[in-house]
Specification:
InterPro entries: CheY-like_superfamily, NreC/VraR/RcsB-like_REC, Sig_transdc_resp-reg_C-effctor, Sig_transdc_resp-reg_receiver, Tscrpt_reg_LuxR_C, WalR-like. By secondary structure, the protein is an alpha/beta fold. Helix content is 53%, strand content 14%. The protein is built from eleven helices and six strands. It is globular and about 50 Å long.
Length: 218
């Protein structure tokens, strides 16, 4: 079954271009396009896609507001939202982390990067554009503590090994890379990541990265 996608962007040419590039991949199918956040929410309710590729800035309803509504309605088993932004430090992106977005990609990304991002997010993983990962998370930790609350007592719920795994997740490493770094089986790392998310009540790896920075693990 192909990965079903909705593309939301207020610029017709950009939206059509993204949809065309994604639809050309054999394992991705664009089922609908939206011109603003409100339309994206309505189409998501209708089509139940695997991934919504969402522009951050749109009229009527922003991508941020639409993400919050989609994630709020569907929870962890609903569509994953991949945010697209023109700027590598967009204020809305900070807010989108708390809204439940699973990935962030710059609009100047390559076609391969775009398709890969959709696949990663569809699998339940989180993705941040390499050029913004450290700057974005560090800036959140320094400037937005009131938005994504630090919970130092929650760190104590993790075993030493889980804390080690979380530190590597915060560095942006994949499960395979963490396995090599900590001399573990990849399946063991995946199990640890699942337990970390459950213990800390986090939606995905993106929020786990934020938690690690907020609580001084990185």
């Amino acid at each position: 079954m192909p990965i079903t996608v909705i593309v939301a962007d207020d610029q017709d040419m950009v939206r059509d271009g993204i949809a065309t590039l994604l639809d050309a991949a054999e394992d991705i199918s664009v089922v609908a396009q939206a011109a603003d956040g409100g339309e994206a929410v309505a189409l998501t309710r209708e089509h139940h896609p695997d991934v919504v590729v969402m522009d951050v800035r749109m009229p009527t309803m922003s991508g941020l507001a639409a993400t919050r509504e989609i994630v709020g309605e569907t929870g962890e088993h609903g569509p994953r939202v991949l945010m697209l932004t023109t700027f590598d430090l967009d204020e809305y992106v900070y807010e989108a982390l708390g809204a439940g977005a699973s990935g962030f990609l710059l609009k100047d990304a390559t076609v391969d990067d775009l398709r890969s991002a959709v696949r990663v997010v569809a699998e339940g993983e989180a993705l941040l554009a390499p050029s913004i990962t450290r700057r974005l998370i560090a800036d959140i930790a320094a400037r937005r503590r009131e938005k994504i609350h630090a919970r130092p007592e929650a760190v104590g719920e993790l075993t030493p090994r889980e804390a080690d795994v979380l530190r590597q997740v915060a560095r942006g490493l994949s499960n395979g890379e963490i396995a090599e770094e900590l001399f573990l089986a990849e399946q063991t790392v995946k199990t640890h990541v699942g337990r970390i998310l459950t213990k800390l009540s986090l939606r995905d790896r993106t929020q786990a990265v934020v938690f690690a920075y907020e609580n001084g693990l990185v």
